[in-house]
Design goal:
The protein has helices at 3-25, 117-122, 151-156, 173-179, 211-214, and strands at 30-33, 48-52, 62-69, 73-83, 88-92, 95-98, 101-102, 110-116, 132-133, 136-137, 139-141, 144-150, 188-192, 197-201, 217-218, 222-228. With 229 residues, the protein is an alpha+beta fold.
Length: 229
């Protein structure tokens, strides 16, 4: 190998090392593979994303942030950014309102439904792997089954009357321990976000550990915008 070839190889190795360091060792640009159903159906298990600290996220973007709580410990999480500093956030009867506006209408969210088993058999083709395990519903109970179903499938099959929504009078002790308020996942707030406070939710609203349970996310915890590819 001549001198020019050695220089070329050395430069190539250096550039590849720098690239790999940027991808895996910094937050400038980082690759993630989703291992959770908390954001399904928008981000299915196995979906791939790039996250960059150079891109400032906006409301309703997916963001990666650093989490540290007593239940899940430390780690990096990806969820949808729904509330930014100064926002008034409230969940009414299972629907998210930001500054008085219902923002859930434009999103294809998943919620929990209890439907007759015979209906689940009829619409089996519409129920993705996330809602079934080896063709069997997750939560069979006599003649009914409880499933996490996205809005588009629920609407297509006229299932809205089967959706499970927590009664306002039933407060969640985990939420109470964070906010000292008798709220639950479907009736939450109103909460006014302070300066540097952000609020995140999973698109699989009834199967997500998010700001309702772990508290607001501070600005310094946010890594950047997550882009699926």
């Amino acid at each position: 190998m001549n001198r020019n070839s050695k220089i070329l190889v050395s430069v190539s190795v250096l550039l590849i090392s720098i690239f790999l360091f940027i991808i895996y060792g910094t937050d400038v640009c980082r690759y993630y593979k989703n291992a959770s159903a908390a954001n399904a159906p928008t981000l299915p298990i196995g979906s791939r994303m790039l996250v960059s600290s150079l891109v400032k996220p906006k409301r309703l973007d997916f963001v990666a942030f650093k989490l540290g709580d007593s239940l899940f410990g430390k780690g990096k999480i990806i969820q949808r950014l729904v509330g930014i500093p100064g926002d008034t956030l409230e969940i009414k009867n299972g629907s998210l309102h930001i500054n008085g506006n219902d923002v859930d209408n434009a999103l294809n969210l998943a919620h929990k439904y209890r439907i007759p088993l015979k209906i689940s058999e009829v619409i089996k083709q519409d129920l993705l792997d996330m809602y079934m395990y080896d063709g069997v519903p997750y939560y069979p109970d006599n003649n009914t089954v409880t499933l996490f179903i996205p809005k588009n499938i629920a609407t297509k099959n006229n299932l809205e009357n089967y959706r499970l929504i927590e009664n306002k009078d039933n407060f969640d002790r985990d939420i109470f321990s964070v906010y000292n308020q008798k709220w639950n996942k479907d009736n939450f707030g109103p909460l006014i976000l302070k300066e540097t406070e952000y609020f995140v939710l999973g698109d699989n609203r009834d199967n997500s550990h998010d700001s309702r349970y772990s508290g607001t996310v501070l600005q310094e915890q946010i890594i950047g915008k997550a882009i699926r590819f």
